[in-house]
Amino acid sequence: xxxxxxxxxxxxxxxxxxxxxxxxxxxxxxxxxxxxxxxxxxxxxxxxxxxxxxxxxxxxxxxxxxxxxxxxxxxxxxxxxxxxxxxxxxxxxxxxxxxxxxxxxxxxxxxxxxxxxxxxxxxxxxxxxxxxxxxxxxxxxxxxxxxxxxxxxxxxxxxxxxxxxxxxxxxxxxxxxxxxxxxxxxxxxxxxxxxxxxxxxxxxxxxxxxxxxxxxxxxxxxxxxxxxxxxxxxxxxxxxxxxxxxxxxxxxxxxxxxxxxxxxxxxxxxxxxxxxxxxxxxxxxxxxxxxxxxxxxxxxxxxxxxxxxxxxxxxxxxxxxxxxxxxxxxxxxxxxxxxxxxxxxxxxxxxxxxxxxxxxxxxxxxxxxxx
Length: 371
Fold this sequence. Notes:
Strand order of the largest sheet: 1-3-2-13-12-11-10-9-8
Shape: globular
Largest sheet: 9 strands, antiparallel
CATH class: Alpha Beta
Distance between the termini: 36 Å
Protein name: Beta-lactamase family protein
CATH topology: Beta-lactamase
Domain Beta-lactamase-related: 32-362
CATH superfamily: DD-peptidase/beta-lactamase superfamily
Number of strands: 13
InterPro entries: AmpC-like (IPR050491), Beta-lactam-related (IPR001466), Beta-lactam/transpept-like (IPR012338)
Structural class: alpha+beta
CATH architecture: 3-Layer(aba) Sandwich
Number of domains: 1
Number of helices: 13
Pfam families: Beta-lactamase
């Protein structure tokens, strides 16, 4: 049993802004009704901006608000892919460059062919490189009571890669029909960003995305374990189904590096997605590469087995004649989903301050809003 009780203080935003998002608000309410402490969402469409929220920042506390900062987790991946595409547009690298060219000697292990693994393979998860998060020893460091012993551990990107390379390659890079979502791919992508740009990952993201788009609520924390205010308390059961709920708001984001460390707001992520999916952030050639997809094999990560994956963006197949571009993300205490219609005229970003519960309730928010 969980050791915290969350009162479902619900702000029914649809009552204030008309009824066109009433179903979406009801879906948010259902997430809190299941036990998530709080959830926020923002929608932008041709009618303007709608904000939905349900639940609280902490037990007995204030309601969640849409200006809060949160860890976006794997929604970091579209940011990382965009920086690499911008570096390609600047002539600093090619998506067809090998990992060995930029990181000589880094990828070594059973079945790995670093000269055949390209930057593109990293970004669309067709490299075959094992996901370090699937290493049992690594996961154990963040499960249950072990979390507090390791929450402030500072990881170097190379350390995370070496954990992955203890395991054999899943398949040959670019093998037909093969796909496996791996955070290791995006850690390596971040390392390449630093080599090709001559900047830190934080500097590269700030220079090419955060500052040009004026994303004032977005930050790359590097090694800082803190969340900027305002924020909700982040809660987690730490990989123990039905286990006690713990406050995991503070921990070292080095555990995710360029695969999942960015902090943002629902408004900033919507701005980014509007510009990225809408085609006004990247040159035409890189935009085409962004949306050049491969089939998703299996259902690892947010989404379904019929989805397609581009470069840091997933094409979610929600139903007949209903598809959206986006990404999901989960890190201890925070679950985020961002999606945009194909022309980006309709965007939604949501965050819940708990990492347990039925993922289908998140899916319901998206399907209700878009389908």
